[in-house]
TrEMBL record:
Protein name per Swiss-Prot or TrEMBL: Phytocyanin domain-containing protein
Keyword Disulfide bond: no
Leader peptide range in chain numbering: 1-21
One Pfam family here: Cu_bind_like
A GO cellular-component term linked to this record: plasma membrane
PANTHER family xrefs: BLUE COPPER PROTEIN (PTHR33021), BLUE COPPER PROTEIN-LIKE (PTHR33021:SF306)
Keywords assigned by UniProt, alphabetized: Signal
Domain Phytocyanin, residue spans: 22-113
GO molecular function: electron transfer activity
Key word Isomerase present: no
Length: 113
């Protein structure tokens, strides 16, 4: 009986985060394109575990890769154009466009609570 109560409690804690999760489109109407101010796009948004981010081709990098616009061989690369990434943990997440990061600053840092 205690096991059932435990499972019910876990479900009650996890379910709201799944139900209330938000799927963001990077850049909203402007999309994931060069020339968009992604610093301004992130401003005022609160990202949570369970939320997701999607749009176009993206490389997942660490802080150094973000600062240097450089993908390492073990960076996560998503090229389908329809990829959606779900945040499964809190922390800082960094995304760059492999082709437009250097010259048009096409990158975004998301802090997940």
């Amino acid at each position: 009986m205690a096991g059932v109560a435990y499972l019910l409690m876990v479900a009650l804690l996890v379910l709201p985060s799944v139900v209330f999760a938000t799927q963001y489109v990077v850049g909203d109407d402007q999309g994931w394109n060069s020339g968009v101010d992604y610093y301004a796009w992130v401003e005022g948004k609160t990202f949570h575990v369970g939320d997701s981010l999607g749009e176009h081709n993206v490389i997942v990098v660490g802080a150094n890769g973000y600062d240097q616009c450089l993908a390492s061989p073990n960076s996560g690369a998503y090229y389908s154009g329809n990829d959606v990434l779900t945040f499964v943990a809190a922390g800082d997440f960094y995304f760059i466009c492999e082709y437009h990061c250097d010259y048009s600053d096409q990158k975004v840092k998301v802090t997940v609570n």
